[in-house]
Amino acid sequence: MTKYLIVTALSALAVASPIAAQAQKLNPAVIAVVDNDRVFRECTACKAAQAQMQTQLQQIQQRAQQLGQPLQTEAQSLEAAVKALAGKQPDAALQQRATAFQQKQTAAQKELSDREQAFQRNRAYVAQQIQEKLNPIVSQVMTARGATVALDRQATLAAAASIDVTNDVLAQLNQQLPSVNTTAPAPAAQPAQPQPQGR
To answer: How many domains does the chain have?
Structure first.
């Protein structure tokens, strides 16, 4: 009986081995290389978006200076007033000035933080729009060139110029994506957390 089981198992293995070998065999990969850095630097929509994002960044920097200069002046004035007290307690007027300064400083920090967050959302939104259009274009160019794999040039140590399809990708991206929106949609409002009710 044991001999019969061994013969049956060997027969099954002999039949399965060619099938397993066929399933593992792959065609040689045909590789295309895309320089994503160059695409994001040179595409028409990318260059226009970069200019607009630079303007947004400059506006944030200008606003930071507008808010910062009066606060710095007020901080120096308060510091001088506190030093003039020579350890005495500040009067109500000085305390009010200090409180008002702290409120202005907090408001300025919040405004700049909000602007910075909006800028980061805008930058991510620009990249998202480009990437959404870029991925199908890379697939199309890959298919047209008979490639089975596309790699970013940054992920390769070396690649022949003959397998670089960046120019084709750029041409199609410029045609299909003439511009992008540099203002991200407002973030979705977070649902209010239910308040625990007392018993």
So the answer is: 1
